[in-house]
Automatic annotation (TrEMBL):
InterPro entries listed in its UniProt record: Homeodomain-like_sf, HTH_RpiR, RpiR-like, RpiR-like_SIS, SIS_dom, SIS_dom_sf, WH-like_DNA-bd_sf
Organism taxonomic ancestry: Bacteria, Bacillati, Bacillota, Bacilli, Lactobacillales
Protein name in UniProt: RpiR family transcriptional regulator
Keyword DNA-binding included in the entry's annotation: yes
GO molecular function, one term: DNA-binding transcription factor activity
Keywords: DNA-binding, Transcription, Transcription regulation
GO biological process: carbohydrate derivative metabolic process
Residues annotated as domain SIS: 107-249
Pfam families in the cross-refs: HTH_6, SIS
All residue ranges annotated as the HTH rpiR-type domain in the record: 1-68
Length: 249
């Protein structure tokens, strides 16, 4: 999101995105109560995002909803199930709106220049890393992937300057991934980080950060199993773009 929002404004905007299907039916007072923010914050946030105010934002949402038949198949779906379905749409839409084309181009160029590529990931992000590993190997790259904490830390100390490190991390704060990024940075190795946390510790040691949007809603609150959909979207765009550029050249 290009507009700079305060912490409370960003919280409100995230809340709106998570409950977008309810917004057309909510007055500014009701939204204020539900989101636990002031009406002034609501007006200020919507104005920062290009609307004349909350009424304008809400009306445009209603109009768009009436004109959009794309999701008519969801009209009879249970409200909570519909919210769960739309949550994925919001994550993808917001991730696409946040993507920096210049950063993608830079990352594509960096992949093209690097013969040796190391991919580090932990947890659910390992599945994305594994897919990237196979695709990069099919594209002729000498690529290694690791999810083992000790191997990540040890290997990152030995990576040569000409190589490239790709780190996939939802919050960008996983201890061994941060240490791996720091080691690579100290050796002058280029690092691309795919994350949803722009201010993460890993980002400080990354030459390029490809940022996605993380939904605040989790249906498994007791476990760290949040959706990696934004990271998946970015990784696919990155590798598809690399293939396109390679074929053109």
């Amino acid at each position: 999101m290009t507009t700079k929002l305060s912490t409370s404004e960003q919280y409100l905007w995230d809340y709106i995105q998570e409950n977008l299907t309810d917004i057309p039916d909510l007055s500014i007072v009701k939204l204020s109560e539900d989101a636990n923010v002031s009406t002034a914050t609501i007006v200020r946030t919507t104005k920062k995002l290009g609307y004349s105010g909350y009424t304008d934002f809400r009306q445009q949402l209603i109009t768009k909803s009436k004109n959009n038949s794309q999701y008519k198949n969801l009209e009879k779906v249970d409200h909570d199930i519909k919210q769960a379905i739309m949550k994925n749409k919001y994550e993808v839409d917001n991730t696409l709106s946040m993507l920096n084309v210049g950063s993608i181009e830079d990352a594509v160029q960096k992949i093209g220049e690097s013969n040796d590529i190391y991919i580090f990931a932990r947890g659910f992000s390992e599945f994305i890393a594994q897919e990237m590993l196979v695709k990069l190997q099919l594209l002729g790259k000498n690529c290694v992937m690791s999810s083992d904490p000790n191997i990540i830390v040890t290997m990152s100390k030995r990576i040569k300057r000409e190589a490239l490190v790709i780190i996939i991390s939802l919050n960008g704060e996983t201890k061994e991934l941060v240490e791996g990024a720091k080691n690579a940075f100290g050796n002058g190795v280029s690092t691309i980080t795919i994350t949803t946390n722009e201010k993460s510790s890993i980002a400080k040691y990354s030459e390029m950060v490809l940022l996605g949007y993380k939904s605040q809603t989790s249906y498994f609150p007791d476990y760290e199993v949040r959706s990696r959909l934004p990271l998946q979207v970015i990784s696919r765009i990155l590798l598809d773009s690399y293939v396109i550029r390679t074929q053109k050249n």
